[in-house]
Design goal:
The chain is mainly alpha-helical and 202 residues long. The chain is 63% helix and 5% strand. The protein contains 11 helices and 2 strands. It has helices spanning 2-8, 23-35, 42-55, 60-67, 71-79, 85-93, 98-110, 113-126, 130-141, 152-168, 190-201, and strands spanning 172-176, 181-185. The chain has a two-stranded antiparallel ribbon. A hairpin with a 4-residue loop joins strand 1 and strand 2 (181-185). Helix 3 crosses helix 5. The relative contact order is 0.08.
Length: 202
């Protein structure tokens, strides 16, 4: 790629750095370079990040620095690997878009395996949009018996959930009664849990 770029730029000489590195470092550098390409789909990216975490013991923060992306982007990509296998395969093959895959994450928790399988077929055969999936999730979250009017404090908690979720790249739930409550922070694997603990200790 560099040789072709030099030819197109009309260069006859280019600076070169020669490194003496072992096979493991060579594999790591090759993997990082591949992750910086623009034509990878989201599952290929996520699997690449997963390899860096598992095989090279990189934290999400280090991965983000090495590939030039934010840590929430890395965390959100890795979350896609928690989807049922069929959804992962369909996203990797291009049958599902990245937007569809992200919208399916919360639905995978709400639906039974059979219902989720049927939803995948409907997306494929009926061209269900990302917005329709988001609306489906909202309907599933609604109380079918009685519509509940949001109190001001619930709106406030929802805003805080959104801010923390965006900053930390993980799902956040705040539940509160009169004078007490709890905050739940999701983690997606052992390495992510350890990184969350380090962040909380700071």
């Amino acid at each position: 790629r560099r040789w072709r770029a030099a030819r197109r730029a009309g260069l006859s000489e280019v600076p070169v750095i020669i490194r003496e590195i072992d096979d493991k470092t060579c594999l790591e550098l090759s993997l990082i370079e591949n992750l910086q390409r623009e034509n990878l789909n989201v599952i290929e990216e996520a699997k690449g990040y997963q390899r860096l975490a598992k095989e090279f013991s990189m934290t999400q923060e280090i991965i983000a620095q090495r590939v030039g992306k934010s840590r929430p982007v890395i965390a959100n990509a890795l979350r896609l690997l928690s989807l049922p296998e069929k959804a992962i395969q369909m996203t990797e093959s291009g049958e599902l878009s990245a937007g569809h895959a992200r919208a399916l994450l919360p639905l995978a928790e709400k639906l039974s395996p059979e219902e989720f399988e049927k939803l995948l077929e409907d997306i494929k055969n009926k061209n269900i949009t990302v917005r329709e999936l988001e609306n489906l999730y909202k309907r599933l979250c609604e109380n079918p018996v009685k519509e509940k009017k949001e109190r001001p404090e619930e709106i406030y908690y929802a805003e805080i959930e959104g801010e923390i979720s965006e900053k930390w790249g993980r799902k956040v739930r705040i539940s509160a009664a009169k004078n007490k409550g709890k905050i739940e922070l999701e983690f997606y694997n052992k390495e992510d849990f350890e990184e969350l603990i380090r962040a909380l200790k700071k």
